[in-house]
Write a structure and sequence with these properties.
The chain folds into two domains: 1-59, no CATH class; 67-206, CheA-289, Domain 4 (OB fold (Dihydrolipoamide Acetyltransferase, E2P)). The longest helix has 19 residues, at 6-24. Strand 1 and strand 2 form a beta hairpin. The protein has 207 residues and is of the alpha+beta class. The chain contains three helices and eleven strands; from the N terminus they run αβββββαββββββα. The protein has helices spanning 6-24, 123-127, 193-206; strands at residues 67-76, 79-84, 88-93, 107-113, 116-122, 140-144, 150-154, 156-164, 169-170, 177-183, 186-191.
Length: 207
């Protein structure tokens, strides 16, 4: 063999040796991969043992939980109730209330709202009769959106909140509460406007 052909043969042998080592490397055909390494990534394995991820797995969409809006209000100082925002038509302040004779103790009178009379209910006397004082509140009137044309005389608006619908716990008892919601780790009763209208109608019929 001539001296000119020696480098070629040497290079060929070196190349063949590299191919044999490559065939014995993890991830190539005939040699199983460790169970901890996905077979789909075998072709992307580098010499340092690291794995290059070429595809990002899809993250499933998490459905949004529907939320309900509430108005939180105090019927008396420190006693909070909630009302669905959809059940409130308007919030009025400093309105003249005209008293009515022969009405239940919790009815203060009527208020004129755009030419329509609304029955004003003292929320403190109705919901907390043992704690309410005899003075009329006349601070804030929460006008309900029901057909009964009712305005709640409350102490003040406390806050507004958006609560996940599945956090509402219904009240099965026959009362003025639809149920309860949790606000800042405290249970707050939700007022039932339909039950309030029905109760007022019955009480007025008895007078």
């Amino acid at each position: 063999m001539s001296s000119q052909e020696m480098p070629r043969v040497s290079g060929f042998l070196k190349k063949a040796e590299e191919c044999k080592r490559a065939e014995k490397a993890p991830g190539k055909s005939g040699v199983p991969l460790p169970a901890s390494v996905p077979s789909s990534l075998s072709e992307n394995a580098d010499c340092s043992g690291g794995v290059e991820i070429t595809e990002v797995p899809e993250v499933p969409d998490i459905p949004d939980v529907p939320k309900e809006k509430y108005i939180l209000f105090e019927v008396l100082p420190g006693i909070t109730y909630a009302l669905l925002s959809a059940d409130c038509a308007e919030i009025l302040k400093s309105c003249a209330v005209y008293p009515l004779p022969f009405v239940p103790p919790y009815v203060e009178g009527i208020v004129n709202r755009r030419g329509s009379p609304y029955t004003v209910i003292n929320a403190g006397k109705l919901l907390c009769p043992s704690s309410a004082c005899d003075e009329e509140q006349k601070n804030v009137l929460l006008v309900t959106a029901g057909e009964g044309q009712i305005a709640l005389d409350i102490h003040k608006i406390a806050d507004y909140a958006e609560i996940p619908a599945d956090c509402f716990k219904p009240d099965e008892s026959e009362s003025l509460r639809r149920g309860t919601i949790t606000v800042d780790e405290s249970a707050v009763a939700v007022l039932d406007i339909q039950a309030l209208e029905s109760m007022l109608e019955k009480d007025l019929a008895r007078q």
